[in-house]
Amino acid sequence: MNVSIITVVRNAEKTIEKTIQSVINQTYDDYEYIIIDGCSTDTTNRIIETYLNHISKYISEPDAGIYDAMNKGISLANGKWIYFLGADDTLYSDDILELVFDSDYKDDDVIYGNVLLKESGVIFDGEFDYEKLCSKSPCHQAIFYRKELFNRYGVFDLKYRTTADYVLHINTLRGGSKWRYIERIIAVYNETGASYSQRDVAYLNDRFEIRLLGFAELVNEKLLARIFLSSFWRFLITHPIKRSLQNLRILFSHMEWYTILVVIYEKYTKNEK
User: Fold this and answer.
1) Which of 56, 62, 68, 60 is nearest to 30 (CA)?
2) Within 13 Å of residue 82, how many CA atoms lie on the same side as its CB?
3) What pTM was estimated for this model as a whole?
């Protein structure tokens, strides 16, 4: 078995069928499909059960969050490569797996491409290096992980409610793992779905901590300025007014750090002139 595709889901009755169809309609057939349901209370399970002939493994039980469910999927996977497809996302085309695995990746640990953001039409987000990872992370919907990678670096850390994939990416790049970028759109990512909208208060807390701890050896004025601008801009564009007070409280809790970064940024921009 070459690829294990894993979908974790809870209460996604409006989107799960399109997700499943995007997998089972693939022209590539050397894959298994695993669905981990977190005890949905809507009709999600009923929809999944109509496709059981196409699903390799399916469990429905309580979990401790999305990364706990993803870890369950990893433990069940038999493929050389592991791919996570969200329950409100779809593979980009019926032949995308065939196109991706038309090449030999024997020396690579991670294969990744791009995702198409469903609502905005933006393609996210090109090739990454360690410096670019300071300010953003590729979506896991764009990534194929060699299963052995999880033996080396561990599964997703449940300490991080919304950014455990970011932690894994940092650890693998720091550890010297080989990442291969392919210039293809892998999936259509629903940026208004549950996997995106959860990234509010917990996201702000986790992301800031990860960046401070994960990139200590790379810290310099330019990178700190980049981190500040990226964090603040993301905050402004992704948090509706109805959640602004709650999220501003978190932002202000880090204001001492942000003030320091502003000073550094001003110094850096003056030196550039």
Assistant:
1) 56
2) 23
3) 0.78
